[in-house]
TrEMBL record:
Annotated catalytic residues: K97
Protein name: Sulfotransferase
GN (gene name): LOC114846044
Positions bound to 3'-phosphoadenylyl sulfate: K97, G98, G99, T100, R101, R178, S186, K303, G304, R305, T306, H307
Compositional bias segments (type: Low complexity): 38-47
Family, per entry: Belongs to the sulfotransferase 1 family.
Pfam families to which the protein is assigned, alphabetical: Sulfotransfer_1 (PF00685)
Keywords: Disulfide bond, Glycoprotein, Golgi apparatus, Membrane, Signal, Signal-anchor, Transferase, Transmembrane, Transmembrane helix
Length: 341
């Protein structure tokens, strides 16, 4: 199997070629550790393999037996109990800033879901590494468990649907969508937090401020044209294989949205109202118990940021811009998201 890191990548180091695998992986894995102390994401960021956590063994040897076997055999037994790495059967493919981290962290509470903490970016950036490289990133699963990952940029990657379909035509796809105007502001807020010197939201939004012409080549605007991106996916996947989760309802009624997702994945509805509480300080729903822990858990500081104030006229211009695309999207999905009230 191809090595995860090539010697040349390692030599480049974090200050080397920014496109080197090592630099990018380090960056991605660090980013994915955002929900600090959170289940597999935190384990992954600490470099611990997912199987380090106790899994339900296929055969549970008696405590006595485990003391008698040699360390080598014990290793083999535990490998058997941990299951095997499989390609994902379900993917959260988008959208950026839609609430994808919240959905994945909530889903992994389910005993029949195992997910990668980091964003693998296989179908957009690392496709050349091959499927075996991709599978090696996955946590081990037992029979009946679903392997998942989330990479929000897949939704706007032209090649992603064909590539995912080539892996398996049966892959289930989940897209968390959010009001494209709020999404654009959220996206901008994230960039601003990393590069405080970027131009204002207003100046990036318009090609020409006087005529009000929107710059559709700006990614923050482009990503929100959901109907256009969806069109590309529908060339490869039937609508029944794609589930659209409302980013707004994921906040106002997480258990309701999680119910729909569990049904879509063919899972028992185990994640319910009982798993959530609303954290007043955070202003978001949080988990009463995180996966693999008994403590309450909210998402990290980078989730649920305060957005800058955008002039109402700019917001209105954007609303007008998105309206026809939103209508098309409601029509295509047969779902009404209520962004245009
Ligand atoms: N429970 C909970 N806690 C915190 N944040 C929540 C939650 N549910 C949804 N959200 C919203 O998720 C937004 C970030 O979306 P993503 O995780 O998809 O972002 S990313 O693309 O992975 O960067 C994030 O966007 P911002 O509010 O702009 O920070 C949140 O609004």
């Amino acid at each position: 199997s191809p090595p995860l890191l090539r010697a040349s990548d390692a030599a480049a180091g974090p200050s080397g070629d920014p496109r080197s695998l090592r630099t990018r992986l380090t960056y991605e894995w660090t980013r994915a550790s955002e929900p600090a102390g959170f289940g597999a994401a935190a384990r992954a960021s600490r470099g611990l393999a997912d199987e380090a956590r106790p899994e339900r063994p296929l055969v549970s040897p008696s405590p006595d037996a485990s003391r008698k076997v040699s360390p080598r055999l014990a290793g083999k037994l535990s490998a058997l109990g941990d299951g095997s790495r499989k390609l994902p059967q379900a993917l959260i493919v988008g959208v950026k800033k839609g609430g994808t981290r919240a959905l994945l962290e909530f889903l992994r509470v389910h005993p029949d879901i195992r997910a990668v903490g980091a964003e693998p970016h296989f179908f957009d950036r690392h496709y050349d590494n091959g499927l075996q490289w991709y599978r090696d990133l996955m946590p081990k699963t037992l029979e009946g468990q679903i392997t998942m990952e989330k990479t929000p940029s897949y939704f706007v990657t032209r090649e992603a649907p064909a590539r995912i379909s080539a892996m398996s035509r049966d892959t289930k796809l989940i897209v968390v969508v959010r009001d494209p105007v709020t999404r654009a502001i959220s996206d901008y807020t994230q960039t601003l937090s990393k590069k405080p010197d970027i131009p204002s939201f207003e100046s990036l939004t318009f090609k020409n401020r006087t005529t009000g012409l929107i710059d559709t080549s700006w990614s923050a605007v482009q990503i929100g044209i959901y109907a256009k991106h969806l069109d590309n996916w529908l060339q490869y996947f039937p609508m029944e294989q794609i589930l659209f989760v409302s980013g707004e309802r994921l906040i106002s009624d997480p258990a309701g949205e999680l119910g729909r997702v569990q049904d879509f994945l063919g899972l028992k509805r185990i994640i319910t109202d009982k798993h959530f509480y609303f954290n007043q300080t955070k202003g978001f729903p949080c988990l009463k118990k995180a996966e693999g822990s008994s403590k309450p858990h909210c998402l990290g500081k980078t989730k649920g940021r305060t957005h800058p104030n955008i002039h109402p006229e700019v917001v209105q211009r954007l609303r007008d811009f998105y309206r026809p695309f939103n209508m098309k999207f409601y029509q295509m999905t047969g779902q009404f998201f209520g962004w245009d009230d």
